[in-house]
Design goal:
By secondary structure, this protein is an alpha+beta fold. Helix content is about 25%, strand content about 20%. It is globular and about 35 Å long.
Amino acid sequence: MCSELYALTVRPGAEAQFEARWAKRDSDLAALPGFKSFTMLRRDAKNRAHNEKAGAPDKFGDDFNYMSFTVWADKEAFMGWRNSQSFKDAHSSGPKKDKEEGATGPPPWTKPPSVFFWEGVLELTGADGA
């Protein structure tokens, strides 16, 4: 199993725009060999992590408030997607793509995402999958 995690910083007040933009993106991930799942995560800023005291600074010191998370059967499937035209199309950006998507104003994020790659060592799933 292999995973890719994009940590994103969305500016305050642009969360709904960001979520809507992701929800209406064209995606052919499900049709790609080895694709297992995609999840968009939003940080729950109202709740503290275990053992953190109210009012204490975030122990990680980051400003990420969203994470895009994909899971692949193995590294070969993941790299096949990373090297595909589908990946290039999904990750291209710029004025032309923004215009095609109907975006107006500044993008909802404040900086490029940070990308993390993980190789799975354990997977637990329920009867309905991940």
